[in-house]
């Protein structure tokens, strides 16, 4: 600790985030990433999956992939926007190829589903009650395909299946 410099970072407020004009991502209506202050990148949007920040933490803990540190992950109760506050990492896009190769070295689980054997929550396989027949987790590809067919049977006419 002799020569270490310890900095306490004050997290940006929603007002700080919304006022940022330093847009780091391609502008879309659904999600954008902005730089706030000099230390933070914040992903903002209505359709950011709740597990995204948890997945980043998992990758950081289980690989050498240089993912940004997540400081906060929350939804504004008034606007229903999700905010993921993380480290700003310069030139991270240049590291994507290396990162993907590193991710491919993580052993695959023995099931099809979300992290920690939880049900899928995407539009195709999600159900309000997380019905395991449709939402999983599934023991294999065949069982997952059956779940997809079951869901389609509930939402599509038979001639479309």
What is the topology?
Blueprint: H1 14-19, E1 22-23, E2 31-36, E3 40-45, H2 52-62, E4 70-75, E5 82-87, H3 96-103, H4 132-135, H5 141-155
Antiparallel strand pairs: 1-2, 2-3, 3-5, 4-5
CATH architecture of the largest domain: 2-Layer Sandwich
Number of strands: 5
What is the CATH C-level name of the largest domain? Alpha Beta
The end-to-end span amounts to 64 Å
Report strand %: 15-25%
Question: Cα-atom Rg, whole angstroms?
Answer: 19 Å
| Sequence stretches where pLDDT stays below 50 over 5 or more residues | 1-6
- Count of helix runs: 5
Main beta sheet strand tally, sense and closure = 5 strands, antiparallel
List the helices and strands in order. Answer: HEEEHEEHHH
Arithmetic mean of pLDDT: 86
Fraction of residues in H or I helices? 25-40%
**The number of domains:** 2
Quickly give the structural class: alpha+beta
Do you know the CATH topology of the largest domain? Answer: Phosphorylase Kinase, domain 1
User: Strands of the largest sheet, in order across it?
Assistant: 1-2-3-5-4
Give the overall shape, derived from the CA principal axes. globular
Structure characterization notes:
This protein is an alpha+beta fold. The chain has 2 domains: about 90 residues, 2-Layer Sandwich (Phosphorylase Kinase, domain 1), CATH 3.30.200; about 45 residues, no CATH class. Helices cover about 25% and strands about 15% of the residues. The longest helix has 15 residues.
Summarize the structure.
With 161 residues, the chain is α+β, with helices and mostly antiparallel strands.
